[in-house]
Amino acid sequence: MSNANQTKKTAKFTAPGLKDKAADETIKLLDDRLVALIDLQLTLKHIHWNVVGPNFIGVHEMLDPQVDSVREMTDTIAERIATLGGVPNGTPKYLVDRRRWDDYSLGRALVKDHLVALDKVYDGVNSDHRAALEKLADLDPVSEDMLTGQLAELEQYQWFVRAHLESASGELKR
């Protein structure tokens, strides 16, 4: 089965009351979110391993709960894809082939450098989650609700990151 076929509904069923066309479109949106969240999970762990400098331990310890939470989000999305009759795919080649963004470029780096870069990663993930939500509103309210809850958590994680970059007057120091 080619990568393109794996984003389509392959089962002869979907969730009761959901039309096949809506299920197909929902699966495509969820597949994109699955790829993004697996990438985010790996990026967060990469930062966890490679962050150094002042405030190292606070950032190092802040990231593991985010990794765990994002991992749960990916599982929820993958199971929703399967529920709708699709085939969730999380293989490394599939992820790389489906990514629409550049790879995270920092290796070992200072806290501030990683947090500035991570804030940009969250900008992309959270913006794309919002865009998917707009489309899901007309397709599948269950998937919309699922992503709404995830976005609330993702935005809170970005706030945690930004709290390290914010001045007392509320400006982001990038």
TrEMBL record:
Family annotation (InterPro entries): DPS_DNA-bd, DPS_DNA-bd_CS, Ferritin-like, Ferritin-like_SF, Ferritin_DPS_dom
Q: Tell me the domain of life.
A: Bacteria
PROSITE patterns in the record:
DPS_1 (PS00818)
- The segment(s) forming the Ferritin/DPS domain are 27-167
Quick one: signal sequence residues? none
Q: Annotated Gene Ontology MF terms?
A: ferric iron binding; oxidoreductase activity, acting on metal ions
Homology family: Belongs to the Dps family.
Q: What is this protein called?
A: DNA polymerase sliding clamp subunit
Organism, by scientific name, is Pseudidiomarina salinarum
